[in-house]
Amino acid sequence: MSDTLILTKPDDWHLHLRDGEYMAAVVKDTARCFGRALVMPNLPDPIRTVADAAAYRERIIRALPRGSDFQPLMTLYLTASTPVSEIDKALKSGFINAMKFYPAGATTHSNAGVRSWQEVIPVLERMQETGLPLSIHGEVTDTAVDIFDREKVFVETVLTELVKAFPALRIVLEHLSTREAVQFIEGGRDNIAATITPHHLLLTRNDLLVGGIKPHYYCLPIVKTEADRQALLKAATSGNPRFFLGTDSAPHARGDKETAVGRAGIYSADFAMSHYAEAFASVGRLDRLEAFASFFGADFYGLPRHSTAIILEKGVGKQIPPLLDYHDRKLVPLRSGDVPTWQVTGITSPEPTG
C-alpha cells in the first residue's frame, strides 16, 4: 500500500454548521477538503422556506475562507404546516437538495418536526412526483422504546410503512447505527439510500460508557454494539452505491457537552477523512474509500463528480487538537489528542488515477 492516496474530492451529505459566529468558526474545517455538503436545517429557528434557506446559504458563503469553492447544499425542515407549493419553489431554486424529516423531539432542535408522516401526505406525494429526496432522522420518539432500539423500531414500523405508501419516493436514511437499518437498505429499492458517519464506524457503546461516561461520544442515534458497528463497516466498504459519506458533524461547546444534561452531537469535520480512512484501512478496504466518499452521494443526488482531488498521506504526524476554537468558546473534536495514520495534506487539480 502506497503512503499516498489521491481521491476525487469528497462531499459530506449530512452536516451541521449552526449559525452566526459559531458557524463561521467551523465551516472552514469542512471547506478544507469537501467540495460540497448537505447542510441540515435544524437551527433554533428552523430553515422552513426557500427564503430562509437562501438567506442561510448566503451567510455560509460569506463565512468561507477567501478563495474557497466549497458549495453549501441546502435542506428544508419539514413540518406539518409545510405547503406543497414550497416543494415547487425548492425545485426551482437550484440550491435546495432535500427536505428533512425530523420526528418531533428526536434530536437537537427537532420539536418543530412532524409527529407522523400522515401529517404531510400531500407534500410527500409532490416530492415523489418531482424526485426531491426526503432525508430522514430515523428514530421513534416513544418514551416506552429503549434508546438503543429507537432506530430499529423506526425502520420496522415507520420507514416500512412510508416506503410502502410512497414506493417511488427518493429517501436517504441518515446516520445509520444498526444492523437492522443496514439490512433494510440492502434489501430495498435503488431509490432508497443511507449515510454513514465516522463515529458510528469507529465507536460502540462500550467506548461511550465503560470506565465512565464520555460525553463527547454522545450522539443521536446513540452508538450501538460491536455487531452493529461491524455491520456498518461492512456496508460502508462493500461498494454498494446506496451507502455513502455523511459525517453528521455537529459542533457543541465543551460546556454544553460536559454538563448535567449534555447535548447530543459529535464534531468530526476537522479530521473527517482521516477517520474514514482509519475505518476503511481496518478492514483492508482503502481501495473503496473514494467511491464511498466521492462518487455514490453525488450520483444519488444527481450532481457531477468533482474534477479536483484531495491528497491523503500516511504518517504525517499531526495531532488532532485537544480543543478547537468555537467563537468565544471551545469544542472537543472526535478523537481529540490522537495522531491519525492518514491525513489530508492538499488538493490537486488533475483527475485522480486511483
Using brief descriptors, characterize the structure shown.
354 residues, alpha/beta, TIM Barrel, 8-stranded parallel sheet, 3-stranded antiparallel sheet, 33% helix
Supply the helix-strand structural class: alpha/beta
Structurally, how many domains make up the residues? 1
Per DSSP E runs of 2 or more residues, the count of β-strands stands at: 13
Shape: globular
Number of helices: 12
CATH-level-4 superfamily name: Metal-dependent hydrolases
Mean pLDDT score, rounded? 96
Cross-sheet strand order for the largest sheet: 2-3-4-5-6-7-8-9
The H-and-E topology, N to C, reads as EEHEHEHEHEHEHEHHHEHHHEEEE
What is the CATH C-level name?
Answer: Alpha Beta
Helix content: 25-40%
CA radius of gyration is 19 Å
The low-confidence parts are: none
The CATH topology turns out to be TIM Barrel
CATH architecture: Alpha-Beta Barrel
Strand coverage percent: 15-25%
Please give the largest β-sheet.
8 strands, parallel
**C-alpha end-to-end distance:** 12 Å
Mind explaining what this structure looks like?
The chain is α/β, with parallel strands linked by helices. It has a single domain (11-305), classed as Metal-dependent hydrolases (TIM Barrel, Alpha-Beta Barrel). The chain has twelve helices and 13 strands. It has helices at residues 20-31, 50-63, 84-93, 121-130, 150-165, 179-186, 198-202, 205-209, 226-236, 254-257, 272-282, 289-300, and strands at 4-8, 11-15, 36-39, 71-77, 96-101, 134-136, 171-173, 192-196, 243-245, 309-314, 324-326, 329-331, 342-348. Strands 2-3-4-5-6-7-8-9 form an eight-stranded parallel sheet. Strands 1-10-13 form a three-stranded antiparallel sheet, covered by helices on one side. Strands 11-12 form a two-stranded antiparallel sheet. It is globular and about 55 Å long. The mean pLDDT is 96.
